[in-house]
Amino acid sequence: MSLSEVKENREALVSGINGDARFMSRITSIGLTPGCRVKVIKNDKNRPVLVYSRDTMIALNRNECKGITVEEVTA
Amino acid sequence: MSASATIALLGQPNSGKSTLFNALTGLRQHVGNWPGKTVEKKEGSFSYGGNEYKVADLPGSYSLSANSDEEVITRDFIASGKADVVCILADSSQLQRSLFMLADYAGIDAPCFLLLNMADVASDQGKKIDASVIEKKLGIPVVPFSATDIKSYDTFYKTLEKVLSKNAKINVDDLAKQYESVKGYREICDLIPENTIEGYSPMWLAVKVLENDEVVLARLKNSLGADAFNKIEEARKNTNGAVATGGCKFKWIDDLLGGAVETKEKKVSLSRLDRIYTSKTWGKAAVILTVLLGLIASFIPALPLMGVGEAVLALKAPVMNGLASVGCPEFIILIAGDVIIQSFSYIFKMLGFVFGVTLVFGLLEEVGVMARISYVFDNTMGKLGLQGKSVMPFLISFGCTMGGAAGARVIDNWGQKVLTIALAWAVPCGAAWATIPMLSAIFFGPGAVGVIVAILLTMLVHMWITAKVFGGKLVKKEDRYGMIMELPPYHKPKWGALFRYVFGRTKETFVRVTKVILLVCGIFWLLSYSPSGNGGLLYRVGLAIEPVTKFFGMPWQLFLSYIASAVGKEGAVGVISALYSGGAYGTAFTQAMAGGADTSNLSSLLLANVTKPEALAFIFAMTFNMPCVVALAATFQETHSAKWTARIVIYYTVVSLILAFLAYHVGMLIW
User: What are the chain A neighbours of B280 within 8 Å (beta carbons)?
Assistant: First the structure.
C-alpha cells in the first residue's frame, strides 16, 4: 500500500520508493529510506500527510506519497 | 589584523545555521547575489584572537544534490577551496536525520568540523550524546553546541583554530565500504580517476552518478571523454539511484552513532498548538489570525522609526523657511524640502515597517510557526506555483505592500519569492482601502459595497492571471514539486541573534532603498516642477495626451492623479482635489502626501467635474497601479533584480490601464 493510505496513528515500514531521480534524492535526504519505520500522525484530505520518522515530524505532499510504498506494522 | 580565513556554514534547514551566522557576524553581514545566479549570498565577518574571519552562510536544503541552484552553488563553493574550513551543523535532537548532510558531504575535499547544535534541546529530551565517540570514528572535531550558551562560542572558536592549523578531514573508509554493496558502485568508481573534478573524490562522484546527478554527469562527460563516459552510463543502468545510496548513508550514520547516543523512548504526539494548526476546520483560520496578530504586533517596534519619519517631515517647513530667509534660490529650497526631506520622511517610515515586519515574522520563522503556515496553505498556494508561506506576504499586503515585500524574505526559493511579491502587489494596501470606500461613497452611495466586492474579485483574478504570466519563468515546471518538509519542534527564540539579524537587514534596506526613493521622487518632482508654479512637464504631457487617457476613462486631472498614485496612494485624492480647484500639481502632491491636502469640499468638486464611469475607471486604475515608490524600493531590495522589478512595474502599469478601460466601458453601459 502507499503511505497516503495508512490511517492516522498507525505505524508502517517503508518498503519501496519510486519516482524520478529528484524525488528519490529529496525523499532520502529528509530521512525516508527503505526499511525505515514511520508513524502517520495526520492524514487529512487536501493537506500534506504528517509522518514521524527518525525523531522528525515530516510533512509530505499527498501526491508524492503515492511513490512511497509501505507495509503496515500490526501492533 | 592578520590574513583572514573563510568559514563556510553548512547545514539542513532548522539546524540553527542562520542563528549561528547572525550570532557570529552581528551587523557585519551583507546579503547579495551569487555571481550570475538568482540565489541569495549571505556573507559576514568577525574577529577573534586578533584574526579576521569571513563567514559564508551557504544556501541549500537537505542535501548536496543537484536539485536546485542553491545546492550546486554550495557544493561548488566548498569544493573550489574558497572555504578554508567548513562547519557542518547537525541538530542534536534529531541527530540521525540531520547528519545526512555530513554523509552527503563526505568525499568533498575540504577541512571541516561537526557542530552538534541544540545540545540543550537534546538534553531536555533526555538524550545523551558522547561527542568523543563520534569524533574518534569521524576523524574530525565534533563539538556539542548550544546557541544560547556563551561558553559554547568559546569552544567553537577554539575548534575553529584547531581545524585551521590541522586541516582535519573526514575519515570516509567505513562509508566507502557501505557503498561497495551498491550495484554498479565499484565499476563506476574505477572509471573515475583521482582529481577528475577538483575537490571531489571518486567515491563522491560515483555516488552522484548513481543518484543521476545531472550536473556531475555533464562535468564527467566533459573531462573523461565520450568513451569512458559511455562505460559509466553502461554501468549505471538499472541501478537503484538515490534510494540505494541514501540507505548506505543512513547505515553509516547508524554505525557512527552506535555507542554514542542514549535516548529515552518517548510517545509521539502533536502539541496542543499543532493540533489547532493542523486541524482541518480551524487550521486556516488559525494561520490567518496568527499573521494578522503578527502584523499588528509589528507596528509596536515600528513606531519609534515611524516617529522619526514624522519628525523629519516636521523639519520641512522650518528648513524651507530658513533657506528662504538666507536668500537661497527657490529651486534649491524646493529640492531640499519637497524631494530630500520628503523622501527621508518616507524612508524612515518605511524602515519602521521593515524593522517591525522583519522582527515579528523572523520570530515566527525562528520559533517554528512559519513551517506550520507552509503546511496549512501548501495545497492552496501550490496551485499558484508558490509555497504555503506565500500566504503571509499576501495578508500583510492588505496593510502595506512594502511590509509584504519585506515579509517575503522568509521564502527560500528566489523565483517563488519574486512571484510572491509580484502577486502581493495586486493586493490593495491600507492607503488604497482608505481611498476606495471614500470615492465610491461619493459617487455610488450604497453602491460602494458593490465596488469593494468588485475590487476584491478583480484582485483574485488579477493574482491568478499574474501567476500564469510570470509563473512560467520564475518557477519552472520541474521546480513545482509538492512539499517535502520538516515541521521542526517549537524553539525558544534566540533574541540576541534575531535582533542582530533584524538590525542588519534594516541597515541594509536603508542603504539600498534610499537611492531608489531619492531617484524616483527626484525625477517625479522634476517632471512636475515649473518655475511659475503651474505647469511642468508632466502637466503639459498630461494635457497633450488627454485624448488617449480619455480612452481609459481618465481626463487629464484624473490621469495625473493616477500617476501620482504610483508614487504614493495617500496622495491621489489630494491631487484630484487640488487639480479640480485649480491648484499647482507638484505642490499639491507633496502636500497631499504629507497629509496637508485640503479635501473639505471634495465631494461637490468631484461630482461637478467627474462622471460615474470616469470615477469607476479611476478607482480601478489607482487601486491596481504600482503600490508606491516605497514598495518599489522594497521589491528591488528583496529581489536583488532591477530587471524583474522593472518588469513588474511595467506589467502593473499596463494592467491597471486595461482595468481602467474595462471599468470605464462597463460603467458607460450601466450609467
Answer: 44, 47
Given a contact cutoff of 8 angstroms between Cβ atoms, the answer to whether B484 and B388 are in contact is no
Name the residue among B609, B626, B289 with its Cα closest to residue B431.
B626
The verdict on a CB contact (< 8 Å) between A52 and B268 is: yes
Q: Which residues pair with B85 in a beta bridge?
A: B7
- Element spanning B202, H or E: helix B202-210
Sheet with B142-144, strands from edge to edge, namely B29-33, B40-48, B51-57, B2-11, B85-91, B112-117, B142-144
Q: What gap in Å lies between CA B397 and CA B430, rounded to an integer?
A: 8
Given an 8 Å threshold on Cβ–Cβ distance, is A57 in contact with B478? no
Residue type for position A53 = S
CB B111, CB B164: distance < 8 Å: yes
Using the predicted structure, report yes or no on whether residue B387 has a pLDDT greater than 60. Answer: yes
Query: What's A69's domain CATH number?
Result: 2.30.30.90
For B139-171, how does the pLDDT look when each residue is reduced to its tens digit (9 = 90+)?
Answer: 999 999 987 788 889 999 999 999 999 888 999
Question: B333, B496 in Cβ contact below 8 A?
Answer: no
Note if the pTM is more than 0.95: no
> Could you list the residue range(s) of the whole structural domain that residue A38 is in?
3-73
| H-state helical runs in B236-282 | 241-257, 272-277
d(CA B572, CA B579): 11
Please give the residue of chain A at the shortest CA–CA distance from B371. Answer: A59
Using CA atoms, how far apart are residues A23 and A67, in angstroms rounded to an integer?
A: 9
> How many CB pairs lie under 8 A apart between chains A and B?
134
Taken in order of first residue, the domains within chain B and their CATH numbers are 2-170 (3.40.50.300), 174-262 (1.10.287.1770), 508-670 (no CATH)
Would you state the cell numbers that stand for residue B8, as one nine-digit string?
563556510
Q: Give the closest-approach CA distance of A72 to chain B in angstroms.
A: 18
CA distances, B142 to each of B116, B163, B374, B516 (Å): 7, 11, 33, 47
**Chain CA centroid to CA A33, Å:** 9
Please give the tally of structural domains in chain A. 1
Q: What is the ipTM of this complex?
A: 0.93
Q: Alpha helices, DSSP H only, in B340-398?
A: 342-367, 369-382, 391-397
